[in-house]
């Protein structure tokens, strides 16, 4: 990934802004050290609501082979440098959800997770011969001691008709619906996936909506009409690099009401690429309103040329949240800090309701 290279940072700013931005960065650092965190609401905090951090690529393993050393902690360090405040690790199956709980438990206050079964994995409910047991195991994963304060949603669940080769439609429908039981029983919001399902997703969602507290449709790539249907169901919309590939995508993203918007990377997938309609927004100069915020810069190397501390090309990771934030802010023509503040509040309302936002 070379998204955060020269064009997107200091070099592209208006003349004279460089020194100023260094000063404000310094001031912000001092403030962080002296004032309790709740008081600097202007400080950019970016929660990543969807990162698949149980993927072996974050341990340096690609298709079963060790491509480079495990750089998981370095990856998290970069995320912190990029002002990522929270990462919700996606659980895509029972096994993955258990791993996610364990992983998130190792980084309290920074990593959280979901527990559920992705539509393409729903055959797993039946493969072991006892779907009720699979459900009971998911519920036990949410209710385990280790999950307290760690599990913030049921999911990733939903429907995906682009990948029926992994799981037939009827099976997806059956176990998506089953996961509403899990959300209802645990009181957790839902982390939802919907891909090319006609009206099926919305129909099922509408039928079950009263049973669940809240939900976000992540990695949204739908039309304006689909957006309106989801908003009518009082759902939130998750935007990542895949949600902004085309000019039409960007238009739809701009139509998401700001109090319904959440941001994510979907790492290691969905990186913003030079061929995407989103890319030019990354190279636009930051406006004067962004003086308090400066994107961090990271080196990026091919995995074969791995270097400690550098990102790995082609492997998206949470530090690129700053790029998602920047594109959305530029496309919607609002200050980065204002957008970040609103997205943070939206995220807390759904996933961290106990946080004090005053
Ligand atoms: Zn998804």
Automatic annotation (TrEMBL):
Name the SUPFAM superfamilies for this protein: Metallo-dependent hydrolases
Q: Which CDD domains match?
A: TatD_DNAse
- Cellular component aspect of the GO annotation: cytosol
Region annotation (Disordered) ranges = 1-20
Q: Give the source's domain of life in one word.
A: Eukaryota
Gene Ontology molecular function, alphabetical: 3'-5'-DNA exonuclease activity; metal ion binding
Give UniProt keywords alphabetically.
Hydrolase, Metal-binding, Nuclease
Q: Supply the name of the protein.
A: Uncharacterized protein
Q: From which organism does this entry originate?
A: Tieghemiomyces parasiticus
């Amino acid at each position: 990934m070379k998204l955060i290279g020269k064009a997107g940072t200091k070099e592209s700013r208006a003349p004279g802004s460089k020194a100023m931005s260094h000063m404000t960065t310094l001031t912000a650092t001092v403030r962080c050290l002296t004032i309790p965190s709740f008081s600097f609401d202007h400080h950019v905090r970016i929660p990543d609501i969807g990162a698949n951090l149980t993927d072996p690529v974050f341990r340096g393993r690609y298709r079963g082979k060790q491509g480079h050393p495990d750089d998981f902690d370095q990856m998290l360090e970069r995320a912190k440098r990029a002002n990522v405040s929270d990462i919700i690790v996606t659980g895509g199956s029972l096994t993955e959800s258990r791993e996610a709980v364990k992983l998130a438990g190792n980084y309290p206050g920074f990593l959280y997770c979901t527990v559920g079964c992705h539509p393409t994995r729903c055959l797993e409910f039946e493969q072991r011969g006892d779907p009720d047991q699979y459900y009971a195991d998911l519920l036990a994963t949410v209710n385990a001691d280790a999950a307290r304060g760690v599990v913030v949603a049921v999911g990733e669940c939903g429907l995906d008709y682009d990948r029926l080769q992994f799981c037939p439609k009827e099976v997806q429908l059956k176990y998506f619906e089953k996961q509403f039981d899990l959300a209802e029983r645990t009181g957790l919001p839902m982390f939802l996936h919907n891909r090319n399902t006609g009206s099926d997703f919305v129909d099922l969602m509408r039928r079950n909506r009263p049973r669940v507290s809240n939900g976000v449709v992540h990695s949204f790539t739908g039309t304006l009409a689909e957006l309106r249907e989801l908003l009518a169901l009082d759902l939130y919309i998750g935007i990542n690099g895949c949600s902004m590939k085309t000019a039409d995508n960007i238009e739809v993203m701009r139509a998401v009401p700001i109090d319904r918007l959440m941001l994510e990377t979907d790492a290691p997938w969905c990186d913003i690429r030079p061929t995407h309609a989103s890319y030019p927004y990354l190279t636009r100069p930051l406006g004067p309103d962004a003086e308090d915020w400066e994107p961090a810069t990271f080196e990026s190397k091919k995995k074969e040329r791995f270097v400690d501390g550098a990102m790995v090309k082609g492997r998206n990771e949470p530090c690129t949240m700053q790029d998602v934030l920047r594109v959305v802010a530029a496309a919607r023509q609002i200050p980065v800090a204002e957008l970040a503040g609103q997205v943070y509040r939206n995220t807390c309302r759904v996933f961290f309701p106990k946080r004090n936002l005053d």
